[in-house]
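Lecture 7 notes: from sequence to structure.

We start with a single chain of 55 residues. Read the sequence below before looking at the structure.
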Amino acid sequence: MVTVALFSIVFLFILSSSYKFVGIWVALTIYMSLRALAGFWRIGTRTGPWKFLKS
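Now the structure, written as tokens:
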């Protein structure tokens, strides 16, 4: 999640400086999409509190 946050912060600075308000929303969309992807990846690897997925 730290990697996702750092990646998103870079996009936030780049997009907000060039596209202003719309860039902020695009950067936030990228952030939320990467968070969802990381969460599904974690569920797919069956690590974490999802022990019932192993059975």
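Helices lie at 2-44. Keep this in mind for problem set 3.
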